[in-house]
């Protein structure tokens, strides 16, 4: 418990930044790389196809996974099973454009609206939960991410559109908006509750506990503010979702940007004026829950929330094969009551069945275990690997038994 207390009182875990600046429009992409894993290409989409903003490129077989659209004028330069690569070209000579749809005025609801949002590129898995009470998570997801305040207080038009659409597609009887303590906002027919903005309370399962006072209560779910923003973006523009809001930052410089899906991180860091030096680490997502990237031609997706440079010398890097010294810090800090040390060792030696037996799939991916690990073991990354392998094994068994 003592370790937990020390973390929660660490000022670096505060989730409020009093950010007052508006979102900055990101750069026009020079190249994009779109993730198309498990998507089906639309007929006629191939190498050298000329594309325009909002053009449908691929559909996903799942009803709650948004389809894929081109974010710009360009030409497809390569397609493989994982990605579609597009280079920007002059729009002259490219025929075709997408007509905006006034989805708010159309008044669709439930399944019909879920299908329309999917076709417009929105992932609706968390938005269409069948629960009695749905909590909109209005906290910044990770320390260092700062878009929640401007999203709540300055982008009212977008947020109102998102909440309105969400009310029409969610089956929840009761919607609650959780915001940082001290923030005063109000929305029609939505209860607003204030929560102490300290990490890891922004992790959905822990926010639910904070708001209801119960662990995993029946009939209660949570959805991120970022998802509501995406929904609102489609409502306001009438166009397919082609962008995301991310915090781009380093220790000395940060701001919030609206950037196109698939943009290369190298171009984004250059635009934000962040220079990389030897030994710097790039993290996509939040500093605690994000994933490290090894190349500047990696890209962001519609769900990316942040892009961070951890300067060399500021945080000791993870050591993949560093042995566990059994200090127990990760066990004390784990909010899911797991044993991250044991799980990471099972995963390290590919004993994924043992991980499953020890409930690795209950991991909330908060990243605290790796943060406190004095041996610098990539504990969360091991657990993520194990859970990905478990999912693969379960899908294989399911396919075999079909
Ligand atoms: S990442 Fe998972 S295992 Fe690690 S502390 Fe968080 S919940 Fe526990
Ligand atoms: S914090 Fe690191 S060294 Fe300590 S028990 Fe956990 S995995 Fe092992």
UniProtKB/TrEMBL annotation:
Keywords for this protein: Iron, Iron-sulfur, Metal-binding
UniProt keyword Iron present: yes
Gene3D superfamilies with a match to the protein in the record: 3.30.70.20
Domain 4Fe-4S ferredoxin-type: start-end pairs: 315-346
Range of residues in the leader sequence: none
PANTHER family, per database record: ION-TRANSLOCATING OXIDOREDUCTASE COMPLEX SUBUNIT C
Record's protein name: 4Fe-4S dicluster domain-containing protein
